[in-house]
Hints:
By secondary structure, this protein is α/β, with parallel strands linked by helices. The protein contains nine helices and eight strands. The protein has a single domain, classed as 3-Layer(aba) Sandwich (Rossmann fold). Helix 2 links the parallel strand 2 and strand 3. The longest helix has 25 residues, at about 120-145. It is globular, with a radius of gyration of 18 Å. The structure holds NADP nicotinamide-adenine-dinucleotide phosphate. NADP nicotinamide-adenine-dinucleotide phosphate binds near residues 77, 102, 105 and 123. Pfam families: adh_short.
Amino acid sequence: MPTFRSEDIPDLHNQVILVTGGNAGLGYETIRQLISHHPARIYLAARSRPKAEQAISDLKAQNPTFNGLRFLQLDLASFESVKAAAAEFLAQESRLDILLNNAGIMMTPEGLTSDGHEIQFGTNVLGPALLTQLLLPTLRNTAKLNAQARMVMLSSAAHARAPSDWVYKFDELRTPAANRHTTERYTTSKLANLHYAKALAERESRVKIIPVHPGMVATNLHHASTGTFLKPFLYAAICFATPVAKGALSQIFAAVSPDANHGQYYGPIGKPESGSKLAQDHDLQEKLFQYVQSELAEYVEPIA
Ligand SMILES: NC(=O)c1ccc[n+]([C@@H]2O[C@H](COP(=O)([O-])OP(=O)(O)OC[C@H]3O[C@@H](n4cnc5c(N)ncnc54)[C@H](OP(=O)(O)O)[C@@H]3O)[C@@H](O)[C@H]2O)c1
């Protein structure tokens, strides 16, 4: 069984790291564990400035000698915000070693992003894809200096529950998809995370692209969830979840280990997995990737 411990995190000298959703849960914990390995800078991207500032203040208190922690304003539910975040980052940095697409929402009430997409799909899939593609040229340049430069995408074991009769009804992703249960919308978004990362990996030769799922980890992910039965169920289930210090190691492995391979999907901790039958459906993967390219075309050069 592969294993990876916090002590296995390599030296990160000179490296520039961007973690989305860095103010809480797995994102915060990932930054907390990486910070003592001497990166040049870590960008904590978050949609809420007060929450980000609180997280930065806590992290600084634990690491008083580290001066490289920066806030990046980012709302993944808005293409304009993602574009502005990428521009803000690129105005300050010419290097990006690790892009960790960690932020996400789970089983929330129905809604739409600013751009009119189903809220979970827009936040979990389209926003991270746009951020990735806006920063990909910089990741590629960095790969000339650091062959370990990479993008990590958070999926979920729950991707295996994505409903085959809805994957992918792209016209409905331009609606709140109210006819679908919130669990179906979440699992579909996490399947799409996996399809997107695998499709990008097939096209990318310089930057490592690594999808990962952390197992069930005790974070706040369920707090914004909805449903008379679902919400209490999630609150009960979290009592049996992995503590966040250990839970974050799956994505930390994907983000920093030289043993994490390009295009491979990993589960806890560093275990190669193949994903569900739908996840392995190459035609579906391609359809998803082309759909994402068409939705982002106004904001970034599509990838063929
Ligand atoms: N925990 C698990 O068991 C589990 C299992 C499988 C996969 N995952 C995945 O792991 C990732 C991290 O989740 P977590 O468990 O750490 O949950 P969490 O504690 O709720 O953290 C999620 C983070 O994403 C941020 N976020 C949400 N919407 C955003 C938006 N529109 N723009 C920017 N940031 C946004 C949140 O910001 P706010 O604080 O402002 O809400 C928060 O920082 C997610 O992608 C999730 O799907 C988690």
